[in-house]
C-alpha cells in the first residue's frame, strides 16, 4: 500500500519535473531521474533506476520541436516504479509495458491541455506589456506555470491514490490466469530500450561519424573483455582464501572483495573516452568557418543544431 506521504511527495515531484524540463533544465524532468526519485521515496532505488533507465532509452531520440507534444515517459516512470515496488509479483519489465508506456501515451492529452491553458496567460502578458505593467507580467508568468504543473500532478495523484488495488488485481490475474501475457510484457519491456536506441541512431549524423560509432563499439568490447578477464582472475584468486596458508598471509576480506572491484571500470573507461571524443568533435565544429558550418546535413539528421 502506498503511504499518503509518498503520494504527496510523488505528486509534488510530478508537478515540479515538467516545470524543470521547460525552464530550469537540470535534467530533473528526465525518466531516469524520475525513476531514481521515485525509488528513493518508495525505498527501492534499484527498481527505480532500472525502470527509469529503460524509459530513458525509449525516448532518447525523441524531441519536442516547436509546439509538439511527445509521450510523457517521466510520469510513466513515476507510476511504473511506484506500482512495481508496492505490488507483489509485478516485474519491472511488465510494469514498463503495462503501466509506463500506456501512461506516457495517455498523458500526451494532458500535455496538450496544459499548452492550451497557458495561452490565456500569454495573451494577458501581451496586454500587460503594452501597458508597461511589469508586476502583472511577473504575476501572469508565474500563474502560467500552474496549468503545466497540474497537467502532470493531477493524473499522477489520481493514479497513485485510486489505482493501487486495480494494479494489484491486474498483477494477480496475470500471475494466475495469463502467465504467457506476463512473459510477453516482460519481453517487450526488455526490447523497448533497443527501439529507443534505434530511433536515436536514425536522427543522429551516423553516416558522417561512422568511424566514431565503430570506435565506440570496439572500445566497449575491448574494455568489457579485458576487465571481465581481470574479474574472473580475481574470482579465482579470492577462492584461495579457504587455504590455511593463504588465510595467514592475506587479509581475507580484501581478497574476497577483489573479484568485484573491477565491475564498474569498463563503463567508466568508455565514458571518459566518449567525453574526450565528444570534446574533440565539439572543438572542431566550433572552429570551422561559418560558411562550412552552414552546409546542409544529411537528410533527416540533426547536425550542429545547438551551435
UniProtKB/TrEMBL annotation:
InterPro entries, per database record: GatZ_KbaZ_carbometab, PTS_IIC_man
Keywords attached to this entry: Cell membrane, Membrane, Phosphotransferase system, Sugar transport, Transferase, Transmembrane, Transmembrane helix, Transport
Name this polypeptide is given: Putative PTS phosphotransferase system sugar-specific EIIC component
Superkingdom per UniProt: Bacteria
Positions of transmembrane segments: 141-164, 184-203, 210-243, 255-278
Membrane topology: Multi-pass membrane protein
Key word Membrane present: yes
GO terms, biological process: phosphoenolpyruvate-dependent sugar phosphotransferase system
GO MF annotations in UniProt: transferase activity
Keyword Transmembrane helix found: yes
PANTHER family from the UniProt entry: N-ACETYLGALACTOSAMINE PERMEASE II COMPONENT-RELATED, PHOSPHOTRANSFERASE SYSTEM SUGAR-SPECIFIC EIIC COMPONENT
EC number(s) recorded for this UniProt protein: 2.7.1.-
Annotated localization: Cell membrane
Main location class: membrane
A GO CC term attached to the entry: plasma membrane
Name of one Pfam family that matches: EII-Sor
First-tier enzyme category under EC: transferase
High-level lineage: Bacteria, Bacillati, Bacillota, Bacilli, Lactobacillales
Signal peptide location: none
